[in-house]
Amino acid sequence: MKASAKKQSIGTLVVGLGSPHGDDQAGWKVIERLVELQLRGVELRQATVPHDLIDWLEGQTAMHLIDGCVCNGLASDNHDLTHQRFEVVEVSDAFRKSLRLEGSKQRPSVVATLERPIELRSGGSHQIDAFSVLALAECLNRLPKQVVLWAIPGERFEPGEAITTACANAISSCVSELVEELSHA
User: What's the CA gap between 112 and 71, in Å, rounded?
Assistant: First the structure.
């Protein structure tokens, strides 16, 4: 039997987006904690620019993308928002900065806008935002079958700022839920 030229499925990719600016460190901090846990069958990456994802998607069956965001349209009267997990079910609206997201059993499906603060958004043609990267990956047939977005709400994103207590708590909560999910994958 001939060996297949197609790359075998690797498994699960977990990417933390971020920068060293205040609560925007959230994605990076989640990855740092996951590295300490030495998870098997999971590829862990930190990214400053979302377009790095395109190079990491080949062979992946699932991707979890974690980012500190200014979250609009996600809070509800029913629960405190510490972090939010969404299945990405449609990225066709990505260029308009909105995605249709499937919530968990406890959290309903929503159409949400998740934005990074203006000073952290892409500023040139060499960098594009995460939503546009997901849309591009979908167009290139490189998007994994399962894509999960973990949104960690942030308040302060200025250079030199420390992570807020609320964001640090959301990071811990996200890590716990993500580890539980990855252990059942």
Answer: 8
